[in-house]
Amino acid sequence: MYYLGIDIGTSGTKTVLFDSKGQALAAASAEYPLSQPASSYAEQAPEDWWRAVRETLSEVVAAAAKQGIAASKIGGIGLSGQMHGLVMLDKKGEVIRPAIIWCDQRTAAECGEITEKVGEKRLIEITANPALTGFTASKILWVKNHEPENYQRCRQILLPKDYIRYKLTGAFAAEMSDASGMQLLDVPRRCWSDEVLERLGIDGALLAPVYESTEITGRVSAEAAAATGLSAGTPVVGGAGDNAAAAVGTGVVEDGRAFTTIGTSGVVYAHSSRVAIDPKGRVHTFCCAVPGQWLIMGVTQGAGLSLKWFRDQFCSAEKETAALLGRDPYSLLDQVAASVPLGSRQLLYLPYMMGERTPHLDPAARGVFFGLSALHGKKEMLRAVMEGVAFSLKDCQQIIAGMDIPVTDMMACGGGGTSALWREMLADLYGCPVKTPAAREGPALGAAILAMVGVGEYASVPEACRAIIHVDRVQLPDPDASKAYQPYYKLYTELYPALKASFKVLDEIR
Are 114 and 131 in contact (CB under 8 A)? Predict the structure, then answer.
């Protein structure tokens, strides 16, 4: 049999068909826009996600048919998606307003409301996290407070990938890993928290039943089959939030394993068979895609986003050169940054373009170049951006290590994981080897593996990963570079505390 992994990301959707050994046989991608109707706002149209899924599924099913693979041979579908987004449907199942997505920062007041009503300590005990602007609960309260007519019309609340599940199957369902990021789930007990819902005045009937990631949650409807070329009745499993799916797609499903991903945001993710919660709430503890187990995750908001911003604003010449050479512009930027010595000639960058989660939990934080002088040019600034992102990921890794979560195996994935220079920086800063998986499909592969387990192709997620996931490259740390980075990293960690009050003042100037 064959399996589909559908990854509904922030910039686009990727759909991939795999065989039972994890070999990718056909793939398609489709992009969609992100809207920022006001400062710190970030929204997308769920209908755009569904259009992208229809297009990519149709393309992949057609490509499979050319290889002699009929749609009826697709044994299951797994979904992965951007976390925390708020999709609100009315009684007809129609979208009420644009989805407020993960990087939106408008809900600071609602986070204060959540903390007051539930209690800071109790909130972390139940949801394993403090109230954060990126999470879904504060978005629900924002709509309730600012758009009461939309809240009154709401009959169903879904996360992005679960909206796609609804469009594919007609079923309303959530799963543990993604639901953990809503701040409405009792993470240790793996169920919706009646206590949190009651204290926030949110009707639990608005939430879908919650499943483990490998459970079958619905089957492709006749209507969706006609729109995509799939066979009606194809099973759709719970799937996972993007990072939990990426963990499966890189084999990070057992104790001792971790990964770093540099996409729009940056993540350091460690698997844990026990619940471990940072009482300060600096990293997230969620249920993971392995039934009955958990993950610890540090997040920096503006990782790949910082490099993309720099590329788009200042590197038009490099983009043109890359196009003429038929190369990825990021590979050219890698070469330029590698020509600059470690430390970027005493230039530091704070990657807080969209506020920050780990370790500062501060939506008012902003990006900073520190130490800029007439000696610096574009190439030093470029390397400083990459080093600043690596320093922010080191922040995440340090906190996880302090929680007694052992990490003996670190993988690198995401778009930034293809950068040899970034992997070198991470290995030197972490002081451990950084590996890359042979497969590049990440969350889409992870989602497909969950489908394989859900329909019985493999007995468990770890068993499937041991059979499917293989290592491609290993970047070893350079002891001299590790030592040379120490004073830069130390100074980096001192800059945010020195600027915290100034960030707040700046945020209040309108």
Answer: yes
